Amino acid sequence: MSDQAPTSGKSRLASRLAPLLDRLDTFLKEFEWTWTKAVLFCLFMAFLMIITAVVLPSFWLYFAEQRLGWGGPSGGGAWSLEIRDAIAMGLTTGPIVTYFAVATILQNRRRKLRGSGGDVRPTGGYR
Known about the structure:
Structural class: mainly alpha
Oligomer: single chain
Largest sheet: none
Distance between the termini: 69 Å
Shape: elongated
């Protein structure tokens, strides 16, 4: 048996994630964009967005029609068709919203790490 007192699940998770967060903080603080990195990242993101926002919903619609039997045009009053379309719309918009949310969170964390918090809007000029 170990001599350590049992810890809660939350503190155990926090202690396991601490090294990963430290590495993320170091990366965010020291990373600088170059034109090459930016272009390659944008190409990768465009490919990823096409896959997640177009291919996954299309696969879901084929799966729902062929395997689950939820076929036909929607709007006929069948709840299975409405649920099928709602899931497809969630698969279309969910990844895009997630990308923007993650980018915003990472950018705010980077500003905090670099000590440039506060108002980021440009000042001066004509208002």
